[in-house]
Amino acid sequence: MASYSHGWWLGSEAQSMDKKGYRRGSFQSSTSDEDMVEIEGVTLDFSMADDVPPLDREMGEFYSYNGGEMNGTSKMMDFLEEPLPGVGTYEDFNTIDWVREKSRDRDRHREITSKSKESTWALIHSVSDAFSGWLLMLLIGLSAGSLAGLIDISAHWMTDLKEGVCLKGFWLNHEHCCWKAETPFENRDTCSDWRIWSQLIIGTSEGAFAYILNYFMYVIWALLFSLLAVSLVKGFAPYACGSGIPEIKTILSGFIIRGYLGKWTLIIKTITLVLAVSSGLSLGKEGPLVHVACCCGNILCHLFIKYRKNEAKRREVLSAAAAAGVSVAFGAPIGGVLFSLEEVSYYFPLKTLWRSFFAALVAAFTLRSINPFGNSRLVLFYVEFHTPWHLLELVPFILLGIFGGLWGAFFIRSNIAWCRRRKTTKLGRYPVLEVLVVTAVTAILAFPNEYTRMSTSELISELFNDCGILDYSKLCEYVSDFNSTKGDDLPDRAAGPGVYTAMWQLALALILKVFITIFTFGMKVPSGLFIPSMAVGAIVGRLLGVGMEQLAYYHHDWTIFSGWCSQGADCITPGLYAMVGAAACLGGVTRMTVSLVVIMFELTGGLEYIVPLMAAAMTSKWVADAIGREGIYDAHIRLNGYPFLEAKEEFSHKTLAMDVMRPRRNDPPLTVITQDSMTVEDVEVIINETTYSGYPVVVSRESQRLVGFVLRRDLIISIENARKKQDGIVSTSIIYFTDHSPPLPPSSPSMLKLRSILDLSPFTVTDQTPMEIVVDIFRKLGLRQCLVTHNGKLLGIITKKDVLKHIAQMANQDPDSILFN
């Protein structure tokens, strides 16, 4: 295997490459990233034992030509020493070359360091270059925190708008409208300044007609919000739909999806996320907030040359931006960093860890300064529990973990089946109609039940809540015995009628959430999965928690309770069960473990509940993995055919590089370019007749001795520029990749030297290399392609797509699904 050097471009050239100057010329192709190379008209004969001529032929006798033609050529042939705009950049839906990008960055850094000793200005430039990464993180944190605050405040107001309006100011939500109202605490949700729609239209909130009117207004507002959301997405930014995390994982692995992290996507995603959450659909804003933060990161990268011109450096920034996104979504900065590391990032060096930490800190601080919920907390469902848990409670916690794993596996299978149906049938042609139908069904079924009518975040907040003396919700309607009250902690009490009503309402809410979320996730509106998954788990957890509490109250003399739960004691906290259930279901769907537990304890501020959370998260992962190996994001990556090479899975099959490389036995031979014997016309014919992303360069057709690898895009740009700017370049001009021009008669046209675009150190393996090593090389170095040799002679090529197809084939899946759909 060849080691790499910086043979692609010198540092100065790497700096000045700018993709903006790229013109699309006559060689248009739908180059699929990995479909690379075949060679025409060559029979590979490995029996050749003769030696090959040196790569750069001796020019001694040739320099005796002194004519004008030769002199002219020597002046013109090096025009490419100045780097061209567009050379070294990538087309849409291509994979970046990590090795080349890292090499270019090292060259750039080396050059800046060496120049910094020459002058004060160069030293200042060196310091500013080193500091630019931290400044960029500061800007990402500020922008992500500000946008999250804006989204939270807007969504809160628009959710309340479905039920009524504030007379003091229509821009106030229900809570802020009644902030200073002098009403009794138990009636704090009703105040003279807040009017529900029936009071505003017919003057009363009592009676059947008022109820129907409120119902109608609720459904109309929900439909209006969702129609606006889907229309904006469809009209202005199709990439703004969905959660965005599968695509961000793919982008961070080195794939390029132009526009996915652009300014239009950011603007439309921010607006439509507010509309989608406010419409009452069963979706959350947490996943899309990661996409929003990554859009901020990508746009801000353009302010700094070192990130603008290097795709690998930009991906380090996007990893940190993903951490900032989770930080503001859950108010969990450390959880955000771990989420980026565990779930989305492909390449995560130590430097990125520190910068992610800083970006997450700034984002959380910014959101805290905005204080969107008015309670000095970063999330709506922050809670604090006071009662310690007992060892025996691990049994119900593990049961919640098992439920979370089963629900996760069921949800992934059902949702993927529905999304596949959407892709392969006429359903996919009517995104607006689909969104409106799902919104109408959700709103009609949600309104009669107060637990589905409220926003999902409020529902989770209610379920996590530990009933205190001042709580007047149905879930806290116990038969009170205040003689045994000690401080804030209320003893376990008998459930009152309100609790029983709440139980069956929650059971109905659970059924609705479980099924409606399957159809909602993946529609053409921004839709996160964290909140609906947590809601399902929180409902199940609360139901189990109340059941345990009543069991302990009525049967405190049972052996399992007698040791630790005496009569009149506060033993069971139903809110804690809701929290553990939420973690279990979220873990079952996403397969997160470490980051999930940290996010949950940052949410609740309860360090002593880490063990229950760990038990539930681990159990749910084991159970879900036993049914299906993929989390929801990996399943969507596979459904969409993104070229993502999963780093977590082992390749255990005993195949060799020769089994996977192309060309295969009956294929046409490999398409190659020779180093100094092909004309401009020959190369243009190859470019026009093939769709590969690059071509190996060999000494000659006969020897097949490998010289290097050249990218199709670089060839097109270089030839176009030479035809325009260099005199004497015609179709019969020889293209050469050597240091010196080959000997030609004086009458021949000017030659074109393209050595500067040749990769002189392409990765190579022999045909007998085991595929598990090849797969590891592709994963760890982020390669686009790898050339296969036999006794030093070129035999074939393996691309990233070939590797993915081979892995799919070995897993008995359809290998043709690995392409960008």
Automatic annotation (TrEMBL):
Family: Belongs to the chloride channel (TC 2.A.49) family. ClC-5/CLCN5 subfamily.
Functional summary from the UniProt entry: Proton-coupled chloride transporter. Functions as antiport system and exchanges chloride ions against protons. Important for normal acidification of the endosome lumen. May play an important role in renal tubular function. The CLC channel family contains both chloride channels and proton-coupled anion transporters that exchange chloride or another anion for protons. The absence of conserved gating glutamate residues is typical for family members that function as channels.
The organism of origin for this protein: Alligator mississippiensis (American alligator)
Segments crossing the lipid bilayer: 131-151, 208-230, 264-283, 289-305, 317-341, 391-410, 430-447, 502-523, 529-548
Catalytic activity: 2 chloride(in) + H(+)(out) = 2 chloride(out) + H(+)(in)
InterPro entries, per database record: CBS_dom, CBS_dom_sf, Cl-channel_core, Cl_channel-5, ClC
Keywords, in A-Z order: Antiport, ATP-binding, CBS domain, Cell membrane, Chloride, Endosome, Golgi apparatus, Ion transport, Membrane, Nucleotide-binding, Repeat, Transmembrane, Transmembrane helix, Transport, Ubl conjugation
Identification of the protein by name: Chloride channel protein
Membrane topology summary: Multi-pass membrane protein
Family matches, as PANTHER family: CHLORIDE CHANNEL PROTEIN (PTHR45711), H(+)_CL(-) EXCHANGE TRANSPORTER 5 (PTHR45711:SF7)
Subcellular location field: Cell membrane; Endosome membrane; Golgi apparatus membrane; Membrane
Domain CBS: 661-725, 751-817
Subunit details: Interacts with NEDD4 and NEDD4L.
CDD domains in the record: CBS_pair_voltage-gated_CLC_euk_bac, ClC_3_like
Entry keyword annotation includes Transcription: no
GO CC field: early endosome; endosome membrane; Golgi membrane; plasma membrane; synaptic vesicle
GO molecular function, one term: voltage-gated chloride channel activity
